[in-house]
Amino acid sequence: MVEDVFNQETQLFYDWRKSTPNLSEDGIIDPESYLNTEVKILFLLKEVNSKDGFNLREYVREGGRTQTWDNIARWTCGIHNWKKDFNWDEMEPINIKIRKEWLRFIGVMNIKKTPGGHTSNAKSLWEDSAKDKVFLNRQFKLYYNNSQLKPDFIIACGTQTSNFFHTLIPFAQDKLWMHTTRGVQYYEYEKGKFFIKYAHPEARVADNLLYYGLIDAVKELKLKWTTRKINI
Description:
Mean pLDDT: 92
Order of helices and strands: HEHEHHHHEHHEHEEEH
Strand content: 5-15%
Helix content: 40-55%
């Protein structure tokens, strides 16, 4: 199964590169770790911060960079341990070893596969991602249509990311947007599986607020689903 996932992604990006030579490959960071984890998470991002295309999966497997991946590693740890309450003193210290440990459990899908900068250009983001609509749909279906790969949480990092995703990919068209008691927007796309619209990991917000805001939402959704299962 692990080899099959790797081969399908490899073939996808081989075909994709014919029309987009400078694309950056993303997807399941470590197929074996992802397949064997209880909570599967797919993070949606806008684009890579780079002048050239590269293999984002390999880059993240090696720990990525502090600016984006510290918070995603914290989020992943918190989601996997949603029953536990961490003090910030436990979550704040982070290094490349910790990032490598937690980032292997996730999938990452950029809406725009061509290189970009620290600040996204909305026009370029839309034009490039729209051009690749067929491949974006093919990539998402690779994960969503496979029961062993299907994410339990899809986390859109930014409103623009969420908007572009839903415009380009006909997913959950009858979705009912709701919000947690603290105002985080989400919808349930299958029983016990949630799409969450949240902030970008580099948002100009204190890291502790970014961490607890998302983990608080996940805890609420998990508890609601657990209670509902018991009452069925």
